[in-house]
Design a protein that fits this description.
The protein has 385 residues and is α/β, with parallel strands linked by helices. The chain folds into two domains: 4-21 and 98-342, Rossmann fold; 46-92 and 345-383, Immunoglobulin-like, CATH 2.60.40. The protein has helices spanning 10-25, 135-149, 177-186, 199-222, 249-269, 312-319, 331-342; strands at residues 4-5, 45-53, 68-72, 75-77, 79-85, 100-107, 119-122, 125-128, 152-163, 166-169, 174-176, 227-233, 245-246, 271-276, 322-324, 345-351, 360-368, 374-376, 380-383. Strands 6, 9, 10, 11, 12, 14 and 15 form a seven-stranded mixed sheet that branches. It has a four-stranded antiparallel sheet with strand order 5-16-2-18, with no helix packed on it. Strands 4-3-17-19 form a four-stranded antiparallel sheet. Strand 14, helix 6 (312-319) and strand 15 form a beta-alpha-beta unit. It is globular and about 50 Å long.
Length: 385
């Protein structure tokens, strides 16, 4: 029996149009070798934010330009600029301060609220079903704990409540952890999973709302200089696997264009996405989370495009962030580690070569002349002629 075909919604076309706007707004005079502005020039000067950690996961300080080798589509590229940024690392002298924005999204759209047992231990705290012991309750409690433990934050944080009406801040951005925790407590009564339509089209609706919200965050981020961190607390939007839907050539091209758009928006905004699953149920089946893995490899042609290429976990890896699913870890500690690690590192500038065709995918690789270190940055980008 033939599978049903579904119609790609209008939002995909809107996202593809948005990349034209964001790309045009990113054109500016070429930065000097010491500049770390967030925009790229018509000369294709590109900016890479790079995180280098030791085997224990701690940021590595004291690196110089000669320690880095950058490959663009396998070709070594000379660095046009270099800068170590933000806080002192491992006792080294504090590096230059570079603006960093942190946004934390509480996702009520892609949240599971039903629990199969009456009691669950969540990060050392026992909660009952009647007390609302779901992903959101735990995420709120752990985010509040992080804020209370850090009353003087290194960077202003914006907390967004994401529901069926979009993402709205619960309070103005603040570096006062107690102020943000107080604001979070006030929205507790309304912190519940959004009403969700069921079935394939319900999943499609949630995926649409999630990706357009992420796109809007990136588009706003392009307007401001500096690095942006987005911690998305949720189980990720539906990948729509196991449905009876298929795409034709036109729809596959729309999906490819959307993937290119989201990747480009995140790159131009200098935005790293952390997709963090807040579920902490011991023994819970985690297979749904790893369904993104086949789509994590580079998407180079529309013929391979699928809904899974728009997964939160895939976009996180592409952006230089991480998909995080650790049921035995305490969420508050993970939030602290993500912010502390990702707000330190290095900025590399280089001049990329124009593409020979539209949306030409190029992989990026950075080698560091230090044994045992791990390097994290964007995995690639889509170049234009």
């Amino acid at each position: 029996m033939r599978s049903k075909k579904f119609k790609i919604p209008v939002f995909l076309s809107w996202l593809i149009f948005a990349v034209i706007v964001v790309s045009a707004s990113a054109q500016s005079p070429a930065p000097s070798a010491s500049t770390t502005a967030a925009t790229e020039s018509p000369r294709r000067r590109s900016i890479l934010d790079v995180i280098v950690t030791d085997p224990a996961g701690a940021p590595v300080a004291g690196l110089s330009p000669k320690d880095f080798t950058l490959y663009d589509k396998g070709k070594p590229m000379p660095l046009a600029g270099f800068q170590a940024v933000n806080a002192a690392i491992n006792g080294a002298k504090a590096a230059a301060k570079v603006p960093t924005e942190v946004t934390i999204v509480l996702d009520t759209v892609n949240t599971v609220s039903d629990l199969s047992s009456s009691d669950r231990q969540l990060g050392g705290v026992y909660l009952t079903v009647n007390e609302g012991a779901d992903d959101l309750t735990y995420a709120r409690a752990q985010l509040s704990a992080y804020l209370r433990d850090n009353p003087h934050l290194d960077y202003p944080i914006t907390i967004l409540l994401f529901n069926e009406n979009g993402a709205k801040p619960i309070a103005p951005a603040s570096a006062d952890g107690n102020v943000l925790a107080d604001a979070l407590a006030k929205v507790d009564a309304n912190l519940r999973p959004a009403r969700q339509s069921q079935g394939f089209y319900g999943g499609l609706e949630r995926m649409q709302l999630s990706t357009t919200t992420l796109s809007a965050l990136a588009l706003e981020g392009v307007k401001r200089p500096g690095r942006k961190l987005v911690l998305w607390l949720g189980r990720g939007w539906p990948l729509l696997q196991g449905t009876d839907a298929e795409t034709d050539a036109k729809q596959s091209k729309l999906l490819f264009g959307t993937a290119v758009t989201l990747s480009t928006e995140l790159r131009l905004a200098r935005m790293s996405l952390y997709a963090i699953d807040p579920s902490r149920v011991p023994g819970e089946d985690r297979s749904a989370w790893v369904q993104y893995v086949p789509y994590a490899k580079p998407l180079t042609t529309w013929k391979e495009a699928a809904i899974g290429h728009l997964a939160a976990q895939v976009l996180a890896e592409q952006s230089g962030g991480l998909p995080i699913n650790s049921p035995n870890a305490v969420l508050a500690q993970q939030i602290a580690e993500c912010i502390a690690t990702d707000s330190q590192g290095y900025v590399l500038l280089y001049d990329s070569v124009p593409a020979t065709q539209k949306d030409e995918y190029r992989d990026l690789k950075i080698e560091v002349n230090r044994p045992g270190v791990k390097v994290r940055t964007r995995v690639g980008y889509y170049a234009q002629p």
